[in-house]
Every structure is written in C-alpha cells, then in structure tokens.
Design brief:
The structure holds two protein chains of two kinds. By secondary structure, chain A is of the alpha/beta class. Helices cover 42% and strands 19% of the residues of chain A. Chain A contains six helices and ten strands; from the N terminus they run H-H-E-E-E-H-E-H-E-E-E-E-E-E-H-H. In chain A, strand 8 (118-119) and strand 9 form a beta hairpin. The N and C termini of chain A lie far apart (64 Å). Chain B has two domains: 11-226, Cation efflux protein transmembrane domain (Alpha-lytic protease prodomain-like, Up-down Bundle); 242-311, Alpha-Beta Plaits, CATH 3.30.70.1350. Chain B is elongated. In chain B, helix 1 (11-41) packs antiparallel against helix 2 (46-57), helix 2 packs parallel to helix 8 and helix 3 (60-72) packs antiparallel against helix 4. In chain B, the strands form two sheets. Chain B has a three-stranded mixed sheet, covered by helices on one side. Classes of the chains: A alpha/beta, B mainly alpha.
C-alpha cells in the first residue's frame, strides 16, 4: 500500500504543478508547430467537399481548413494524393491534416486519428484525418469544430437547398 | 457401493458460503457496471483496453464460484460415489487457463505496439456542450474499477479461508490487486498526456504481466491440486498439518501401536486413508471400534470428510 500512496501522491503533485500548462501534449509537437507557421494539408479530390481545378481549391472542407489556418495564423501548404497515400503520410508525420470527403466509419480508423464529425444533408458523418497520437492537435481540432458546429450546420442547410 | 457423506459444510462454513454467494453476486453486478463505464471511456488507449479485458476476465471467478458451489453440494450417487466436490477444481482449472492465455495475449499485444511504435490517440469528447480531453474521463473510470473492488476482495478473503475455497481465494486476491492495474493504466494515460506515446503500451505490458502471473499461479495451484498433492491451507504454501494431527489422534488410542495417514483435497474437503497397526493384546469388537474412531476423526475437523481406517499387519515403509 505504501508504494500506491507514493504513486498517487506523485501523480497528483505532477498534475497540480502542471495545472494550466499544456495538457495533453503532442509527442511530435504538431499543435505548437502549426501555430504561426505552416499547416500541411493533404487533399484528395472529392466534390463537392474538396475540389481542385487549375490550381484553384474550393469546396466546403477547403473553406473550413482555410478558416482554421487563418485563426492559427498559419500558411497552408497543400499536398495532393489519393486516400491511402495521404494516410501513409499522416502516419509518417509528413502531414498535419487530410481532407477529401472522409466519413465515419472509415477503414483508416486505427491507423490515423479522426476528428469530431459533422453531419451533412445526406446524413453522412464527415471527419478530417489527423496524424495518430498527436493528442493536443486533435483536441484543438475537436474544440475548433465544436465551436463552429452551428456555422457548419447552417452552411450545410444552405447547400442542401 | 459405499457413498461419501452428503453434508458439505457445518453451520459456520454454511454461513460463510451464503455470505460469499451474496458478495459474488454483488461482484458480478458491480463488474457489469465497470465494464460499461470503461467501454465508453476507453478510446484508443491500450492500457485501458487491457484493464477492461482484465475486468471482463474478472467475471469468471465469481461465476465459477456461484455455479461450482451449487454443484459441489449435490449428494453422492451410484454414478459419482465420491460426490461432486471436484467440480470446483475443474472449474478453477478452466478459469486459470483463461486468465493465463489472456495474459499472454495481452502481453504480446502490448509488446507489439511498443515495437511498431504505435502512437495512442486520445482525443476530445463532448460533455455538456464542452469538449474535454477523454483522458480526464478515463482516470475516474479506472478509479471506479478499482476502489470498490479492493473492498470486495478484502471482504471475501476471510470467507475463503473459513470455507477452504480456493476459487474464492483467487478471486479475492485478484480483486485486491486491482488497484495496481488501475494505477498502472492511470500512469499510462497521464504519460500519454505528457506526450510520451510509449507510456500507454508500457503500462498495458505491466498490467498484462500481472494477469499472466495471476493465471500462472492459479494454474500451478489447481494442477497440483488435481494431481492429489498433499493438502495445503488456502493462501499458504506449507502443507496442512491436519494429516499429522490425525495420526497423533489415532496413536493416542492405547490399542493402536502405529498409524499412517494420507489425504487429498477434493474441493472444499479432504478425502483420505489411515493405515493402523492394532496392538496384539487388543480385545474387543474391532469393526465397532474402527467405526467409532472414524466418526471421532471426522468430527475432529470438518474438512476430514471421507476417511477410511484400515487395520494392517505392518505399515508400509515411508517414502
């Protein structure tokens, strides 16, 4: 029992000392790296969510990412690729985010992390793909998507008409 | 065909049995709630998954106990002249084997995740309109899975000793050790929170090691038991002195010059044989004296359940 007491004490002390500091943290510091710097986004063509035509990108998910990047004061570096390429790059930590009409459930779950989902007019649950284990970054995205849930819904309603 | 005595327990043990059955039903209800709570807060944490599996395995000992104690007291019949006591050991064998296999599998799983450097993802969860880190929910869930269980284990332990029930004892020991599982899993999650991806799988490895060790210990216990090892008291490594005490009891009769007793455990109770050498000057009714002596021996301790006293010309050489 003595060991368990020390252990519990240690954990509580650690948590109290860390109160207000960054928790959870990213093993590879994605959230800190993105803020004020560069957001590396992988995109696979999936109209109407993510479309590229003559170097111009459009679509709802593209707009969302642009909005996110603006708030994070980050410059977007786009990368193209098919789904499995994007997943592989996410796993290697070469991307911070992947978009392109991904919906839950997806076969990629387990290999990469999924954000909070939002429903479209067709009842599909859309998600972004995120590198696995970058928990601070994932939580930031989840919170950001939750904060913009109402906008997303209204946007969907307009498109649905 | 001579049948074994039907009665399993004297009143004190019977009372313990009833109390233990109540506690085991309570354990099952509690575990069911734990499994649900853990499932919904588990996320992608390997340590949580391992702790959850351990809780699932925790159903086996109470279920085995509830079923086996019901069957073990069935009276002996012509088909099963020694009664049904051993059902406990057989059930215990199955439970330990499950524990051992699961422990091995979980250990391999955790080591694999460490080798391929899988980064556990623990994201946000929506609660009352706020998005909080799922890790914060895992910690109270784990505490819920361990603190009441420690209390249950502590309540079961003395009952297991009273009833000489090794399934109940193993269950109580596992319950009592649950805090280690919970603390290891919490450490893993907090570690992940600090950005150490390996903390989770390392914690899972530690937990699976404890599952494996539990399984190994129980397996060894029950196999030696089924091999008719000399009886041991619940939770003790030394052989039970009861056969020696019985020898002394027999030798205290002036008409017995030599005695040798061997016993084996059959679930809660002991079966055995006593060889005696009757004094050459013995006069009287030998069958009647033997019958009285047998009654007295089984009254000496409730665990002496079925004893055969056989007069022999001389004792075989002791090994």
């Amino acid at each position: 029992m003595r060991f368990s007491h020390y252990f519990a004490l240690g954990i509580s002390a650690g948590l109290i000392l860390c109160w207000g500091c960054e928790f959870p943290r990213d093993p590879h510091g994605t959230a800190d790296r993105v803020r004020g710097h560069v957001l590396r986004v992988g995109m696979t063509q999936q109209a109407p969510w993510a479309v590229e035509q003559n170097g111009e990108r459009s679509g709802f998910e593209v707009e969302l990412v642009q909005k996110l990047a603006a708030e994070q004061q980050a410059k977007i570096v786009w990368q193209a690729g098919n789904e499995s390429e994007l997943v592989k790059r996410l796993e290697r930590g070469e991307l911070d985010l992947a978009i392109g009409g991904f919906v839950r459930p997806t076969p990629w779950e387990g290999r990469v992390a999924l954000t909070r989902s939002w429903g479209d007019a067709a009842g599909l649950e859309h998600v972004f793909l995120v590198p696995p284990g970058e928990n601070r970054w994932l939580l930031l995205l989840d919170r950001w998507l939750a904060a913009h849930a109402e906008e997303i819904r209204q946007w969907n309603d307009r498109k649905g008409v | 065909m001579p049948l074994s005595p039907a009665l399993e327990f004297p009143p004190q043990q019977d009372q313990a049995l009833r109390k233990a059955r109540r506690l085991e039903r309570l354990t099952i209800a509690y575990l069911a709630s734990v499994v649900v709570v853990m499932f919904f807060s588990m996320g992608a944490s390997q340590a949580m998954k391992t702790a959850w599996m351990e809780d699932m395995l925790g159903f086996i000992p109470p279920l085995v106990f509830l079923i086996a104690t019901r069957i073990a007291i069935w009276p002996p019949n012509k088909r099963f002249p020694y009664g049904y006591h051993r059902v406990i050991s057989i059930a215990f064998l199955c439970a330990s084997l499950a524990l051992f296999t699961m422990g091995a599998w979980l250990l391999v799983d955790a080591v694999y995740k460490l080798i391929v450097a899988e980064h556990p993802t623990i994201g946000g969860v929506q609660i009352f309109g706020r998005t909080i880190w799922l890790g914060w929910l895992m910690i109270p869930a784990l505490l819920y899975s361990s603190l009441p269980s420690m209390w249950l284990g502590r309540a079961k332990l003395p009952l297991a000793k009273t009833m000489h029930d090794k399934v109940l004892f193993a269950d109580a020991a596992m319950n009592r050790a649950d805090w280690q599982t919970a603390l290891a899993a919490i450490a893993g999650i907090v570690g992940v929170g600090f950005g150490f991806w390996w903390a989770d799988a390392a914690a899972a490895g530690l937990i699976s090691f404890s599952v494996l060790y539990d399984g190994y210990r129980n397996l060894r216990e029950v196999i030696t038991n089924l091999m008719d090892e000399a009886p041991k008291k619940v939770g003790e490594d030394n052989t039970d002195p009861l056969p020696q005490q019985l020898e002394s009891l027999l030798l205290s009769r002036d008409w017995i010059v030599a005695a040798s007793v061997r016993m084996r455990e059959q679930g809660h109770v002991y079966f055995g044989e006593a060889l005696i050498v009757v004094a050459p000057n013995f006069v009287g009714d030998l069958p009647q004296s033997l019958s009285e002596l047998t009654d007295e021996a089984t009254r000496y301790d409730w665990r002496i359940h079925d004893l055969v006293i056989a007069p022999v010309p001389q004792l075989p050489e002791e090994a």
